[in-house]
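Input record (one chain):
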Amino acid sequence: MRKTLLLGCVLCLAACGSRAQLAPLENASLPVAPYGANEKPSSEQLLELETLAAPERSVELRRRSEEREDDPFDLPPE
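The corresponding structure, as predicted from the sequence alone:
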């Protein structure tokens, strides 16, 4: 009984992922054009992330441990 239930749950979870392209529903339209724009953005343009939503890493990761610099604000509690 438990094996069948587990197998059913696994199959349901595996079926949840969809790899089809996203498209608006029938009889539904894309959002209106932003203020000042001449035309509506396409669905691909709407799915692109803005720079602030997914910024690139600008610091190099440390490859090995290094000695910390002295921090003048790292004071013991009073």
